[in-house]
Design brief:
The complex is a heterodimer. The longest helix of chain A has 37 residues, at 5-41. By secondary structure, chain A is an all-alpha fold. Chain A contains three helices and no strands. Chain A is rod-shaped and about 65 Å long. Helices cover 88% and strands 0% of the residues of chain A. The two termini of chain A are 23 Å apart. Chain A has helices spanning 5-41, 43-46, 50-77. Chain A has one domain: F1FO ATP Synthase, CATH 1.20.20.10. Chain B is mainly alpha-helical. Chain B is built from seven helices and no strands. In chain B, α2 crosses α4, α4 (95-112) packs antiparallel against α7 and α5 (124-146) packs antiparallel against α6 (164-203). Chain B starts with 6 loop residues before the first helix and ends with a helix. The chains are: A mainly alpha, B mainly alpha. Chain A: The chain crosses the membrane at residues 12-33, 53-77. Chain A: Pfam families: ATP-synt_C. Chain A: The record marks 61 as: Reversibly protonated during proton transport. Chain A: InterPro entries: ATP_synth_F0_csu, ATP_synth_F0_csu_sf, ATPase_proteolipid_c-like_dom, F/V-ATP_Csub_sf. Chain A: Keywords: ATP synthesis, Cell membrane, CF(0), Hydrogen ion transport, Ion transport, Lipid-binding, Membrane, Transmembrane, Transmembrane helix, Transport.
Amino acid sequence: MEGNIGELGQYIGVGLTAIGMGGAAIGVGNVAGNFLSGALRNPSAAAGQTATLFIGMAFAEALGIFSFLVALLLMFAV
Amino acid sequence: MATEAHGEATGLSFHPMDQFIVRPLFGDGPVHWYTPSNVTLWLFAIILATLALLVLGTRGRGIVPTRTQSIAELSYGLVHKMVGDIAGKDGLKYFPYIMTLFMFVLFANFLGLLPLAFTVTSHIAVTGVLALAVFLSVTAIGFIKNGAHFLDLFWVRSAPLAIRPVLAVIEVISYFVRPVSHSIRLAGNMIAGHAVIKVFAGFAAIAAVAPISIIAVVGMYAFEILVAFIQAYVFTILTCVYLKDALHPSH
């Protein structure tokens, strides 16, 4: 059992950032699910809204990407 | 796809992040800005692929398009419709730039998926320049087209006066975070996908889990083909959204 405590904290921190990605996963799933339930109610309007779907997904995903970035920085840059 | 170094340390025969190392094409010297490296090679390949599709592919100008020609026409039509729908008719003036961005990112993502290839868009240096160019040009367009009215983007007139300063702060922050999220979304997706494939590939060395690992690699690869297109699409669509904000800043 040797090694420095800073490295321990670093790896724990990287693991904790994975929770942030889980949040983004919930967000993206929410966007897609709500789009689908709306699209099934009114299929004729769905085709025009795919761009909005992707924009919404991109915004939801961005925050997960930020946590992924933090993980990468912790692993390789700090 | 290095085979050296990390071997003993991690137990894997290669490190998942080794594929993103910039190496000189010839010899082993240090990489300067003028050194021909694997990045140079694949940037060149992207330009060649784009030219091959859009110039050579449509050379025949057939009434009944060949397969290559219809792919070129489909991608042109996709981006043209996107710009027209989102940025509006006056945004079509900037269509050539957005088409260039789309084709560059698309081919960078797709060529990066070839075995032994280098994914140019996995580097934040590359996507950062793309996103910063979009950010700066869109801001310039906003100020040139609308003058001081461009600042209406931050001063939400439809909201009650009391909360407008708070909204202004939030809007300013979200405006300046744009190039960051724009670039990191693309680079992060590419890094993550390729690293995951490599991690699964690393498990193939262990006989007991090798079949699962190979199936996982195939599955992830198929998913990455989808992601490569979607990220190029998202990058372009967000550029259109930013352009729309610059052309019509009032909410």
